Amino acid sequence: MQVLLPLPLAGAYDYRVPEGMALAEGQFVAVPLGRREAVGVVWGEGGHGIAPEKLKDVTRALDVPAMPESLRRTIDWVAAYTMTPPGAVLRMAMSVSAALEPQKLILAYCRPEGGETDARLIDARLTDARRRVLAA
Fold first, then answer.
1. What is the number of helices (H) and of strands (E) in the chain?
2. N or C, which terminus of the chain has less Cβ within 10 Å?
3. Mind listing the pLDDT tens digit for each residue in 90-100?
4. How far apart are the first and last CA of the chain?
């Protein structure tokens, strides 16, 4: 599989798809890049004549909607028209890469319906500060 990364690179890099993972064009994936992990878009089928054993595996597919084909074609067109690397244009198209990551868990405390302190809260090491917050 070719994966286009949002970096000023000349083109997409080839990665191997691990067994049991099905990928489609436009899907957002995480791939190893040097010592870090990068998020990119599956751009097409691989085939640059690189031996499969030299390719690195796609780490994971992100659980987000795929990039539409029309947007991928527009990125290619803008890159060709402005003589810019396609990865740099992709970076503009996915300018908020944090939107692709899962939401972080938010911990919240709430007061029980009866207004009385529940025994489960006491077991959770309810401090004086937390008691004042719950009382408010």
1. 4, 5
2. C
3. 998 887 666 67
4. 56
> DSSP 3-state assignment of 122?
helix
Q: Please write the tens of the pLDDT for every residue from 60-89.
A: 999 888 999 999 999 999 999 999 999 999
- Residue 31 CB neighbour total at 10 angstroms: 19
- How far is the C-alpha of 27 from the C-alpha of 3, rounded, in Å? 9
Say what the pTM is: 0.69
Q: DSSP E strands: which ranges in the chain?
A: 2-4, 13-14, 28-33, 36-44, 60-61
User: What is each CA distance from 90 to 30, 66, 111, in whole angstroms?
Assistant: 15, 14, 47
Helices (H), ranges, 1-136: 69-82, 86-93, 119-123, 128-135
Q: Distance between CA 85 and CA 80 in Å, rounded?
A: 8
